[in-house]
Write a structure and sequence with these properties.
This protein is of the alpha+beta class. Helices cover 35% and strands 25% of the residues. A hairpin with a 4-residue loop joins strand 16 and strand 17. Helix 1 packs across helix 2 and helix 6 packs across helix 7. The longest helix has 34 residues. The radius of gyration is 23 Å and the shape is globular.
């Protein structure tokens, strides 16, 4: 982390400020509503403790449903210019490694005082919108409110219930009306998803193994599967992020947008599709690309993550850009939306905290919390630090994989060739889900080949895994 410019530990002035914080934010000032009677719930990973958002729905009739997304009001305790804010601005993100989590804000805040924990009242920024039968979003509004989390829920158990594979989790069953809430939110999320896909949103699949520990020992690696509960949260949050961006636009405020530009390397994407016998248009078109991806997912699900990775690299990664009032930015090619501003994770992403401050200033009729020039500088910094954090996480993930395999030298594994160039030949093993280099017997191998490889050596300090063709 230090080599990448990240600050692993909280500096003394930030810890001194932390000591002075004793309780969650109270009061909130004029215009703060009381929505604690609404049946908000959270859905996150089983081990998540930094809960950033809650959601609740209201059936309006005629197929219309109102969705309210409550996002933790971190700014109520972490003030702009404070020592805690300075550390958050330096790192810009929490860093999630296999070895340890390095939170952007101290756990006393991110998992307690500013977290929307189950059974607790918290101050929040609420983003409200209506979804019709066709998945069209309208009636956006943003305001501050007190909310209560009536059920802390987890993705996998809720997905199993939605898909009819398990009973409703006890935490949801105990909360009055929660079963219907979840059914309604799931149904609305599928409407939103269907509409985005029809507009060209891309469904890509990545493999990011997570280590399974027994005590201090890594015993396995697992991959996170997409499911209906994750889709539920993803869709209602994408819509909320769009509403927040439009809100700032209508208020004449500058904003920090999350964009994925129209791919400059589209010709190479066209060439990739041609290798599979498919034709893409000469100019970037997300609908056509998604149709190609959909066909490949159906034809070869096992190799689809590798194709996804190729497409992601050719598209270019997402980035933050400053958008001045009245300006039209590049939009988000991957999500097929024009207006998008990260808003829903201020405990772990600094750009979201920036957006909250801009929204709160607009609500109060004050000048923007950041000027366009400040936002431009921050956008560049956030992009740089996000890239640094990603490299740290990837490096530790590779080391974890090498550590898991260090006592399995000589064993044979099945996998697919994921890269074959002058840089070397690489293979993705199916179980456990790891990638390594083929150092012996790589001649003639090409991307997509299914092969058996024998583990030759590991170096977990550097995250190297070496195979020989078996």
């Amino acid at each position: 982390m230090v080599e990448r410019g990240l600050e692993p530990d909280f500096p003394a002035p930030a810890l001194a400020e932390l000591q002075a914080l004793r309780a969650p934010a109270e009061g909130g000032g004029e215009g703060v509503r009381d929505l604690r009677q609404l049946a908000f719930c959270s859905i996150d990973n089983d081990d998540s403790r930094d809960l950033d958002q809650l959601s609740v729905s209201e059936d309006l009739g005629d197929g219309r449903v109102k969705i309210l997304v409550a996002v933790a009001d971190v700014d109520a305790l972490v003030k702009k210019g404070s020592a805690l804010d300075a550390h958050a601005e330096r790192n810009t993100t929490s860093v999630y490694t296999a070895a340890l989590i390095f939170p952007m804000l101290p756990e006393k805040l991110s998992t307690d005082l500013t977290s929307l924990n189950g059974g607790k009242d918290r101050l929040a920024l609420v983003i409200e919108y209506t979804v019709d039968q066709a998945g069209v979003v309208s009636g956006g509004a943003v305001y501050r409110a007190f909310v209560h989390n009536y059920a802390k829920l987890a993705y996998d158990s809720i997905a199993a219930w939605i898909e009819g594979k398990a009973k409703l989790p006890e935490a949801a069953a105990r909360a009055k009306g929660m079963e219907q809430q979840l059914k309604t939110q799931d149904e609305v999320a599928q409407r939103l998803r269907k509409r985005r896909l029809s507009q060209g949103a891309l469904e890509l699949q990545s493999i990011e193994p997570r280590p399974v520990f027994e005590g201090e020992k890594i015993v396995n690696l697992t991959t996170q599967e997409q499911n209906r509960a994750r889709q539920l949260i993803e869709e209602v949050m994408v819509a909320a992020n769009g509403v927040a961006a439009v809100f700032l636009q209508t208020k004449g405020s500058p904003s920090l947008r999350r964009v994925v530009r129209s791919p400059e390397r589209w010709a190479k994407i066209v060439a990739v599709a041609a290798e599979y016998g498919e034709t893409l248009p000469a100019q970037p078109e997300s609908k056509a690309l998604e149709e190609f991806l959909k066909k490949r997912r159906a034809a070869d699900a096992a190799r689809f993550p590798d194709l996804s990775l190729v497409i992601v690299k050719l598209m270019g990664r997402g980035e933050y850009v400053a958008e001045a009032p009245g300006q039209t930015g590049p939009g988000h090619f991957g999500l097929a939306v024009q207006d998008y501003s990260h808003t829903t994770a201020p405990n772990r992403r600094f750009p979201d905290l920036i957006t909250h401050r801009l929204v709160k200033a607009a609500l109060a009729g004050q000048k923007p919390a950041y000027s366009s020039a400040e936002l431009s500088t921050l956008a560049t910094h956030c992009n740089d630090m996000e890239a640094a954090a990603t490299k740290v996480e990837r490096q530790v993930r590779k080391s974890a994989a090498a550590l898991l395999l260090h006592d399995k030298v000589g064993q044979v594994f099945e996998g697919f060739v994921t890269g074959a160039s002058e840089k070397g030949t690489f293979v993705r093993v199916l179980a456990p889900p790891v990638e390594g280099r083929v150092i012996t017997g790589s001649s003639g191998l090409k991307v997509g080949d299914k092969i058996k490889v024998k583990l030759q050596a590991t170096d977990f300090e550097r995250g190297f895994i070496d195979f020989a063709k078996a």
